[in-house]
Amino acid sequence: MAVESTGSLMDPAPERAKRGAFFFPMLFMGIICAAFDLGRFLWGGTGVPKGADFGTGAALTVIMLLSIGPMLGARGKLSRGQDAAALGNFTLLMVVGILMIAGIISTWGAVPIGLGYGGIYDITSGWLGLYFVAVTLAFLASIMKGKRVPARFSAERWVAHNVVSFWGFMVLVWTVFFIVFYLA
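Above: the chain sequence. Below: its structure as tokens.
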């Protein structure tokens, strides 16, 4: 095992595989969301239905964009070895994840599923909700590991880096979702 906790190309193959396998959920999410986002354009001439709550979508997008600050802060603290300080950022990002889940669920009744737009919207936001649950649980697991076994958290810092990278991907995918479903 490598001495450097963020990992390197010189790590043994099993260590590289563990880090690399983490990015398969991001790839899967990107493929699924891209397919449904493209499906949205099948109803391109219909515009956004009146039931779609633009205010909620915009508020959730602003929250996600503001979460870039704590995300970058956590990444910087992890890179400097300040693991305990990064846990505060993780807690804040976990709370943002819970807000996003609540916001997504609150929008599900806004557009009838019978409309093509409503069905695609609900399916895509449901996938995003599932991934927000996953990233929120990943932050919770990292926080618990950091508080209960800090030595292991430091030794496996690459896991925390991957969780932060996953959050960054969530910010990107949510922003694309907002543009496609609320602005296009």
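The chain has a mean pLDDT of 82.
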